[in-house]
UniProtKB/TrEMBL annotation:
This is Threonine synthase. The keyword Lyase applies. It comes from Granulicella cerasi. Residues 78-380 form the Tryptophan synthase beta chain-like PALP domain. Its cofactor is pyridoxal 5'-phosphate. Its EC number is 4.2.3.1.
Length: 433
């Protein structure tokens, strides 16, 4: 294992402030606090400017000066830089006039924001000389580690809870990765991975490489600021599993302010969870600075972490910004999925259903003002979690390939679609809308 020299970042303990250089290590051996990558922002200042970013590639590597990428590593996968879309139709439904959706349902290459964190983690895994990489995953991380590791020529062993959605299992195995289903929930899987990482000397992206992995999430924040014309929004609504992404968006904004790239302003952070696994939102609602672990029971499997590593820090951060956290039932999650699809044409997975339903609730409860600039962060793709939608739509009879048959079918099925036919026929369907 080589230690990188002359880099502008290193691991630091947020408690005792001890520096560790750059090594595969997740927590301070003395305080047990999760380690953070800290940058020497003064030395980054001249190299990270609006102009240098604009001249970069249309992917996360345009921000590489603020990512822990080892000297000499040449990233080539065009990860990230997903659309930020003004969501006026969704806004109209939920009473918002200045709402945006950050659409990581279409993140490259595996259709979730996890592609960002994996790209950064694997660059470090390669640098540290690991032959085998792995992860404990609620699904999306498994897909991304499997896809990206094979492209880098690394072998992968991936551990998941045994009851994961079939699409997420298949979307891991197709890349040739070794997939191991563990009898238990994510928290059992994660504990086992900690032991395996030590025993086998593997690089686990969210265990011993976690500080590097987590930095990849900052790119969601950089992109939002850049896509708003180098401005910060008033509010961020973000789903939470381990509680890392929401914290890193905040860190990204703070770095941009420190570098003088965006104007400082208060941004409120709102966390979103499923009620069936809501340790962080529960903590925020009670004003705690710690979390009480839960046993997950929700269709939002990608968010089902009962004992989140960054939970206490996320709860404190949200409260310090004047934000809030909400949680929604499985029924509300499915409605959220449909609402975003029907209004904005974006098909998100259960986690995005959580975020959309929570966003609606925050407006309805007046926690977010109608005209405030708000970004709702959609993190994964609906094609991976179709199960909750099965049976939602009527299965209608097949129609013979003749115009008259089609016409008859439409009149019985949805006559409101008939708008452009001859006068007398319009009268026939009058009043059906
Ligand atoms: C992992 C995941 C999250 C939450 O990320 P954390 O950083 O663990 O809070 C949100 N959405 C989706 C789709 C995920 O896969
Ligand atoms: Zn320490």
């Amino acid at each position: 294992m080589s230690e990188s020299s002359c880099t502008v970042y290193e691991l630091k303990c947020p408690e005792c402030k001890k520096g560790f250089g750059n090594v595969p290590l997740s927590a301070c051996p003395d305080c047990l606090a999760p380690l953070e990558v800290q940058y020497d922002l003064d030395s980054v200042r001249g190299r990270f400017t609006k102009e240098s970013v604009a001249a970069g590639p249309a992917n996360i590597w345009r921000y590489k000066e603020l990512l822990p990428i080892p000297e000499g590593h040449q990233p080539d996968l065009p990860v990230g830089f997903t659309p930020l879309v003004k969501a006026d139709r969704l806004g109209k439904r939920i009473g918002a006039t200045n709402l945006y959706v950050k659409n990581d349902a279409v993140c490259f290459p595996t259709l979730s924001f996890k592609d960002r964190v994996v790209a950064v983690a694997l660059a470090n895994a390669q640098h540290f000389g690991f032959d085998v990489v792995g992860c404990s995953s609620t699904g999306n991380l498994a897909n991304s580690v499997a896809a990206q590791s094979t492209r880098l020529g690394l072998r992968a062993c991936i551990l998941v809870p045994s009851d994961l959605e079939p699409a997420k299992i298949l979307n891991t195995q197709v890349y040739g990765a070794k997939l191991v289903r563990i009898e238990g929930n994510y928290d059992h899987v994660n504990r086992l991975c900690t032991l395996i990482a030590d025993e086998y000397k593997w690089g686990f992206v969210n265990v011993n490489l976690r500080p590097y992995y987590a930095e990849g999430s900052k790119t969601v924040g950089y992109e939002i600021a850049e896509q708003l014309g180098w401005r910060l929004p008033d509010n961020i609504v973000c789903p939470m599993a381990g509680g890392s992404l929401i914290r890193k968006i905040k860190k990204a904004f703070a770095e941009l302010v420190a570098l003088g790239i965006v104007e400082d302003k208060p941004v409120k952070f709102f966390g979103a969870q499923a009620t069936g696994c809501s340790p962080i939102s529960h903590s925020v609602k009670n004003g705690w600075d710690d979390i009480e672990p839960q046993r997950p029971n929700t269709i939002a499997r990608s968010l089902a972490i009962g004992n989140p590593a960054d939970g206490p820090a996320a709860s404190k951060m949200i409260q310090s910004t004047g934000g809030y956290a909400e949680d929604v039932s499985d029924v509300e999650i499915v409605s959220g999925i449909q609402e975003l699809a029907e209004t904005e044409g974006i098909f998100t997975e259960t986690a995005g259903g959580v975020t959309t339903a929570v966003t609606a609730k925050l407006y309805a409860d007046g926690r977010i003002g109608k005209d405030e600039l708000t970004v709702s962060v959609i993190t994964g793709n609906g094609l991976k979690t179709t199960d909750p939608l099965v049976g939602k739509f009527a299965e209608e009879r097949a129609v013979k390939p003749r115009l008259a048959e089609f016409d008859a079918f439409l009149r019985e099925s949805d006559a409101s679609l008939i708008t452009g036919v001859a006068e007398e026929e319009v009268e026939l369907v009058g009043g059906t809308k």
